[in-house]
Amino acid sequence: MSIKKHLASGLSALALTTACITLPSLALADEDPIKVGILHSLSGTMAISESTLKDEMLMLIQEQNEKGGLLGRQLEPVVVDPASDWPLFAEKARQLLAQDKVDVIFGNWTSVSRKSVLPVVEELNGLLFYPVQYEGEESSENVFYTGAAPNQQAIPAVDYLMNQVGVKRWVLAGTDYVYPRTTNKILKAYLKDHGVADSDIMVNYTPFGHANWQSIVSDIKRFGSAGKKTAVVSTINGDANVPFYRELANQGIEASDIPVVAFSVGEQELSGIDTAPLVGHLAAWNYFMSVDNDANYDFIDQWIDYTGDENAVTNDPMEAHYIGFNMWMEAVRKAGTTDVDAVKDAIIGVSVPNLTGGYATMMPNHHITKPVLIGEIQDNGQFSVVWKTPSTVAGDAWSDYLPGSKDLISDWRQPLHCGNYNVVEHTCGGSEAK
Amino acid sequence: MSIRPSLRSALSTLTALLMLLSAAAVQAAPQAAPDAQATPQQQKVNAQDTQAAALLNQLADGSYHNKAKTIEQIADSSDERARQWLEAFAANKLARLEDSGEFVIIIKNRGRHWTIANALTGEPMGKRSRRDIDVIRVNNQLRNQLQDILSVIDLKVSDPERRLAAARDLRGKVTAEMTSQLRKVYVDEDHAEVKSALEEALAIYQLDTQQDPEAIEILDGSLSSEARAALNRAAQSDQPELAAAAKKALSGIQDKLKLNRAAETLYFGLSLGSVLVLAAIGLAITFGVMGVINMAHGELMMLGAYTTWGMQQLLPDSPGLALVLSIPAGFLVAALVGIGIERSVIRHLQGRPLETLLATFGISLILQQLVRTVISPLNRTVITPEWMSGSIMINEALSLTLNRLYIMGFAALVFIGLMMIMRKTRLGLEVRAVTQNRAMARAMGIRATRVDIMTFGLGSGVAGLAGVALSQITNVGPNLGQNYIIDSFMVVVFGGVGNLWGTLVAGLSLGTLNQLLEPWAGAVLAKIVVLVFIILFIQKRPRGLFPQKGRAAEG
Fold it and tell me: Where is the secretion signal located (chain A) (predicted)?
């Protein structure tokens, strides 16, 4: 059917054309599902954390399909395994976007894997939802950060310790890679702003998978016996935490003496340890499995039914994917299409319920609003919430406490349309800080 | 010497026990009383219950600040159940039902349905969905306060261990109201350690409030951090004599601390060393004696650790027994898998070390992924039995962690056992013969193939034993082996290939070196320095610390 011919035959014909064009495309839609790429490691070191997120995405997609899909089309998951290999993440992302032609990608865990994928999604104009708390200092047009930025996790946690617990001496302990190093840099600057002396801050880095914590824990114990209330702010990566906490317990450091607040320890990490000696140590997240809320209980029931494991746990990155998936669907509905550019514009300002009884909104800097919760470890491997920010906190891509980034803002709406706009020099750089 | 009790778990057991007891008491009372007198007694119980419910409601609804006051009211109330509530509260196990507003104590808090019992009557109430249970929130500060209250009560129990823990806990926390009571307890106390801890607690209080120079004499020589903190505060006082005395006492303490610290570092070093020895000694047999580069050695350790987990799944009620049983089980599992690897792959690659290296590396990846697929990519929980957790306190500045102590002992046993096998048994003799000259050994009637199988099985089994031990100090997950394989090779090469003594010395010295470096270089740099040291050492002495001598070495 030629459009030219119909244009010539007047208004009525035009109406008919529209119908003719729409009809076949509708018919096409029915057999053509929306593809959702899932880029999480199913083998290698990170499988421990990431494989759960793959299962969760499959569950969410299945549920949505049972409800009738999206825009009348079914959702089809495309699962790839980047095998905890950072360069492979970029390859697999390219495969998803160029070959499988997915409409959106949910994936990544470590910052280094995100940095590896970043140029690919920007080049091929994809959409990536990243669900894990990270160090900030980044805002890409194609990435949506549904995990916490430092101001949504680290800073409120330190505030809590400073104001509610009265901590005067600080141990910043982390695994030796980009997230702890950047977070600790921000925290150190923040603590100094609040009048903490250099001699009251101890910084310690350990390699990945560090298992021999004896002398470090003993150092912490000594550092904490100076008569001032001491706390440990831990950015120790998942796996190394088990021996760390074991050593704490064995050397008799209890939460009432020296509390440890962790940013990478969630329900899943705790499911690998006997938590009885750890009762009272803290973690800061935006979600805990123990949150007393019906939406959360429903989600847990759904997850346990899906996995068939009565002891399955949920955690913060899972909530981030839950929010991210719902936000993306809401944006697609709003835009009426899965076209990347349309969704990118439509998603800013979209609000969906989170699992802690509030709403998450996508901000113009591609970060979302989140409540910050402080939880204490209990003997059943769960956290009990002891403190909560009075309202949600908007994620800040560029930290206000680092010299290189405090003048930068990110706003992907027109007319600014820039990930790191320097408000002093009025210039726009790339997606990363100089 | 005293073993520090694991307070938390003791607390929860106690809660359950007390609950049962009080349940029996409450239920027994009305039955025992004749009907005529039931009414006034009932009334009294009712009045007490109303008051208790009011207090508990106050606890549930109050802010953390108000909760602190309510805790004192509950502690002061004459209610016998007060202690039980406070303990449940501290353990996050006191809750209110959403629908009826009844107060309950949570007995089992895992899964979606929790087992509960009525907090007032003690009656078991079966299982309820977690949705209906509102746990009364507690935080560290409140728990601290509760612990202090319980400490004062604990000073009067008959168990000296608990009295000691309570007295130590009170140091630095003594308040004006407590002093007269504490003095009385101090006079009556006959246990020397408890007495001195109480004396210290009182001295710290006196030094802080009255600037009493006599208190410094008491605190002089004490290794506890609270005493040091108090002396530090006194050293900054504006009374010159007091400050001088405090400074003098502090410098004496510092000297003592240095000595203790040296002992501690040595202990840390030896314990890390013994872990290295355990991990490497199996390799010393397969690599050192047989010359097979087995990159899957780490995965054999992983299998040993998973066996421990499996045993604990089979015997969920006695993790200690399961751990002991997994020693032979872990050995067998790893040995059988090792023999399987030897028969199916390594045997065909004899004399081709590069291919063996690649093939076994492939096997290690297969085993890892197999565990991920079959069991789970997530780490498994291996419970540390009660007798292995905590530490032995030599003095207040030096305590030796028990799990490490056990592992040191275990490593020593394994080493001696292996030594005996190699020196005293026929297998050992045959192994040594085959290693020295395979053809000649066969000519003498030794079945070299059988010896190969046995040796590889032995080495692999020992790797399994290392895995059982490692399950007590690190993650039990698919990556366990990867973290130890490099260290193991390092130890074997450094010690001298084919020499068990070399492995022992190398493991212990590398462990100690690492722990000496760690405090001032940091963990990352310490590892690098050790690695560089080994590289340089191997340049100078390519055959390691204890090279093999004689014709066998050249062959």
Answer: 1-29
